[in-house]
Model the fold of this input.
Amino acid sequence: MSTALAPSKIIISGEHFVVEGAPALVAAINLYVEVSAEERYDNHLRIETDYEGKKFVIKSTLNEKILDTAGGEKAKKFLRPVLRTIRKTFEFIEKSEGMNVYIYSKIPPSSGLGSSAAVFVATSASVCKRLTGLIDKEIVWKAAFEGERLVHKAPSGVDITISTYGGMLLYRKGEKPIMLQKSGKAIFLIATVGKRVPTGKIVERVLKLKSEFPSIINPIYMSANYLPIKIAEFLRKDDLYNAGRLININHELLSAVGVSTPRLDFFVNLSRRKGAYGSKLTGAGGGGAFFALVDDERKTKVFNSLSKRLKDVFEVTIVDEGVN
Ligand code: MEV
Done:
């Protein structure tokens, strides 16, 4: 059995704008997906996972021809991109075999914390390890990108990049990511406000708005271009006050392009009122996750207030290592 662990992520700044070429500031966090791959004695693939308490299974040929599923259309929708990731991994390493693949996720699904990207990355890595004895991160990235493309047509690649390489980085589409030093003082509290609109739909909606009203929306993109770099600078200097001010502006820009919700706005504002330096939605929006930037002194009041109203509030740690 070959097992790989891939981290999820928080986008500190730059989601959506990154799809059109702006930079994003993103960090890998200590919530993981674990995938194991073992040999089968026929030429089939069988993938199994628990999704929201239900068992999903898909069985296929090595060429992605689906033979059987358990869990209906939802299982197919969720696991088809995983099959694509496996087939692409076979193609890139020029080896294949029948396998059973098991996916275990600790990441709240459909929340904007990059659970599907982490599934693709961990899957490709476990298959790579099983067939070659090691994890080639370039191959994992390329194969996971193909999986992600089935989920939404225009991914920037930020989610799979951070899950593959880990740490905290500035990412711009088509460029080599820049690894950054973590801040010593910054603490990120994250929580989810419930189910959200699928990433593909919400990305499309934003792009449509931009093409309908370019003279109004383009200046928002221009301003968003500077935010991740400035926020990274302030975090590096442990200037949480100014990092937080810009994080707040980032949330309002995302709100302006229509990806916040009244519930997200409520919790972002509550975090700020309770003392967070800044708070914003993170990921694709339309529901899902947000974070509050705090330090040791300010964290308890914000944490307690969020915990009274929301089920899972996490204090996350930024992890240096990507998939392994
Ligand atoms: C989703 O985690 C981030 C988005 O910017 C989409 C992407 O970059 O592919 C909304």
